[in-house]
Description:
Largest sheet: none
Order of helices and strands: HHHH
Number of helices: 4
Helix content: over 70%
Shape: elongated
Amino acid sequence: MSQHRPTTASRQTIAALAVPPRLERLGPLGGRYVHALRLIALHERVGRDPVPELAVKLGGVEIAAKALMLAQVIAAS
């Protein structure tokens, strides 16, 4: 049975993935979604519903509910 040894390139790729990109490099949609994820995490910690604040920040209840659903699906997988 052979053992897998990571190459220098794969180590560099993994190291690069460990560094989160700057928020402004994600563009407006990516930045808004990261902000939404942070709000969801904060509200979950304190046991509150994030949808009202998300609706204000994202511009509507439907968008807020979709962001919350997507975050829940990501967390479940």
